Amino acid sequence: MHIGLIGASGRLGTLVCENLVQQKLTFTKIAREDLQNIPSFMQLLQHVSESMIILDISLPVGTENICNIINNLEEKNLKQIKGLVIGTTGHNDRQKQLLLSTSQKIPICMVSNFSKGVYLFEEILKAKTSQGLTVTELARALGFDMAMTEIHHTLKKDAPSGTAITLAEAGKIPAKQISSVRVGKVVGDHSIHLSADSESLEIKHTAHARKLFAEGAIELCKNIYTQAPKPGFLRKEDFFIS
Amino acid sequence: MHIGLIGASGRLGTLVCENLVQQKLTFTKIAREDLQNIPSFMQLLQHVSESMIILDISLPVGTENICNIINNLEEKNLKQIKGLVIGTTGHNDRQKQLLLSTSQKIPICMVSNFSKGVYLFEEILKAKTSQGLTVTELARALGFDMAMTEIHHTLKKDAPSGTAITLAEAGKIPAKQISSVRVGKVVGDHSIHLSADSESLEIKHTAHARKLFAEGAIELCKNIYTQAPKPGFLRKEDFFIS
Amino acid sequence: MHIGLIGASGRLGTLVCENLVQQKLTFTKIAREDLQNIPSFMQLLQHVSESMIILDISLPVGTENICNIINNLEEKNLKQIKGLVIGTTGHNDRQKQLLLSTSQKIPICMVSNFSKGVYLFEEILKAKTSQGLTVTELARALGFDMAMTEIHHTLKKDAPSGTAITLAEAGKIPAKQISSVRVGKVVGDHSIHLSADSESLEIKHTAHARKLFAEGAIELCKNIYTQAPKPGFLRKEDFFIS
Amino acid sequence: MHIGLIGASGRLGTLVCENLVQQKLTFTKIAREDLQNIPSFMQLLQHVSESMIILDISLPVGTENICNIINNLEEKNLKQIKGLVIGTTGHNDRQKQLLLSTSQKIPICMVSNFSKGVYLFEEILKAKTSQGLTVTELARALGFDMAMTEIHHTLKKDAPSGTAITLAEAGKIPAKQISSVRVGKVVGDHSIHLSADSESLEIKHTAHARKLFAEGAIELCKNIYTQAPKPGFLRKEDFFIS
């Protein structure tokens, strides 16, 4: 497997490169100019003898560019691309439309957080209990009220975090019940507080180092490469485990 | 509904009585001598005009005595007893056999912890995620290792707690991975620690006051009374929610 | 010791009464009408043969009324009152002036939170480390940034809590770094998060049951009664420990 | 400042080297053979033109070797060594004796944990509160009982951890009140639980990444270098802050 990396110069991109080197995986950094037209992309593709997964952790415009390239590649070249993993969020309607058409050509997997623990957290909230209710529904039926706190470093600009929003959706927690704390160098803590009379439950995820997001992204690429799914939108649920 | 309470003088029993008074529910304390033979029990039953749920929070021998009584009651008297809720553990084989025969006469519900939060905790660990794995199985498949800590007051004699053992079974956590702490006046904390590379998840239940166990026991009795199930062993899952 | 209780009908007042009964301590509920003038108060005082501590957990106006009474009591009647403990906050300037003059007649102790753990928490933040810095100053000098989260039940109206404000002052945490969560039935959680590069410290207080505030108030009254200090404003630090 | 590093090939040593390179600090790895005799050490010293701090994170025998060298260096060569920082524990009596004689020649600082947060934690437990009691003594006087849990990865062999032992001493927590959990990849969690009736306090330190120990060690060397203390045993308290 060869990784084509869009967004290599970003914070996550730098960590992905470091990790790919450590794992001795071959990869190519795909710059904006490589995506300008088919010839530029073909020039880059020439140097890659293996089949590849493209990992896009840039910005929505990066997603747009790679989709435009893929939609216009010749069949024989398209065969070399085994999947597109997108860790970018905030695509506009045109870009979403473009993703839809591209998904008919290659498998696409969209993931807002590459941490396995956050994925597990989301699965917990939506998991089915013995009576058919989800965990979240059972908690409410038993009289538990729910709220969330999320803590990140002081340089984080958005609040609440994207992960908090995803988890709140899974747990049916209203937006006003999410509290954001910005302090020091915290990589990422997300806690759901469940409270009933005289008892409480807390489910808490702690990201200890940013590199786990890089490792998660690479493992997802590997799993998709190995399982070689057909074109279409992939459920991330099917590829988080090898 | 009338509650027949076996074990009224114990720590939990005292709280149950207080709570029954607060809720203005009628109840009868059933002492050991009331269970000695049918006539003694009938004498006690005479004063109860309503149909009743029997709540046994005594010791295994209490369970044995009430089962012997029930098995020998005349049909018309048996009708008055709508269910038997047992919060006692540690029954021997003969007592289990007795429970089996009694369950053919009245509905029996056996519960090791009357807290709704502990019940939710257990359900979480066994809930089915989107791919068909349980939460516990998914955690392991994603590379998370699991351990438990439980903290109780210094007067608690057994370690690990019965609840810890139940949760460890639900989470397939080996006994040697349960750590018990005995400190101060802690009512009951149970935490499951999930650890993978650079991230961790913790699920923690805190019992803030012992009265929640009394309230949970009474609510379970009410739910069984209302739903009026047929004789047999009841799944506690079906009666924790009203 | 006899307790004169102002504010007996409030939430905390009810618990104080329950606890006084449990501890077999004698007490008198002092109503608003008892404080209208000296004769009404004297009528009430007649029935109390012991010397007493007055515990005011009403509203600022209650504090005002008792101060007016005390300031106008005859010397021989004043002797019966060994101290005034005030758990009310939000006094206006006139009321503060009144407290000052009253403190020349009897010992007064003002406490915003009757929990021993919150008192310990505050002491921790202000304690002197080996080099002469306070804990808070040392934390900052070592590069730790600080923030606070406080969690209370959904019926609590003020945010942040008075306790959070007191702790934030002790820890020199700016008001905007306090996050308030209102969920379920939480009695009161206060956490200070200290974050530096790749490590964090958390100091967390949990109030498990409201009765601890009642117990703390009564114990403070007892300690003042036993130590019999001179008139003046007492430091709560001197009376939290018996 | 130049760092002379003993124990460069160990787990912590590797991280120290990485960090020294990142900080563009010059350093020399001192191997066992460099410490065999004065000529070997002088050969190594020749290549170092700056004055240096020696950081020993090897084993007790490494400490022994460097002490023997220092005790036998000529005065003019000794001047080049500004201090010895030792992160090794478990020295025997002979080695302790040797350290004592060496401390008459150069400043020596012995530290069992290079994390600033653990240092802060220890200082908290021993800090003086307003009445003259330490935090630990005040907690006990207020009725709080104390216990500790420490969690580390499954490859850690010793239990309880050295840090747990240090903190337990500072908090006067008996050894049997320390619970050790070994799970997954946890870098290092240490929690002290304080419990009293209906309330609890928890003080918890989390090490998120092993590199913080490397950074702490280097910063300590820098602070000693800058402050240039006289020979003798240094209090780590005086050099954790720049």
From TrEMBL, chains A, B, C, D:
Residues 136-233 form the Dihydrodipicolinate reductase C-terminal domain. Pfam families: DapB_C, DapB_N. GO terms for molecular function: 4-hydroxy-tetrahydrodipicolinate reductase. Residues 1-114 form the Dihydrodipicolinate reductase N-terminal domain. Pathway: Amino-acid biosynthesis; L-lysine biosynthesis via DAP pathway; (S)-tetrahydrodipicolinate from L-aspartate: step 4/4. Keywords: Amino-acid biosynthesis, Diaminopimelate biosynthesis, Lysine biosynthesis, NAD, NADP, Oxidoreductase. It catalyses: (S)-2,3,4,5-tetrahydrodipicolinate + NADP(+) + H2O = (2S,4S)-4-hydroxy-2,3,4,5-tetrahydrodipicolinate + NADPH + H(+); (S)-2,3,4,5-tetrahydrodipicolinate + NAD(+) + H2O = (2S,4S)-4-hydroxy-2,3,4,5-tetrahydrodipicolinate + NADH + H(+). Belongs to the DapB family. This is 4-hydroxy-tetrahydrodipicolinate reductase. The lineage of its organism: Bacteria, Pseudomonadati, Bdellovibrionota, Oligoflexia, Silvanigrellales.
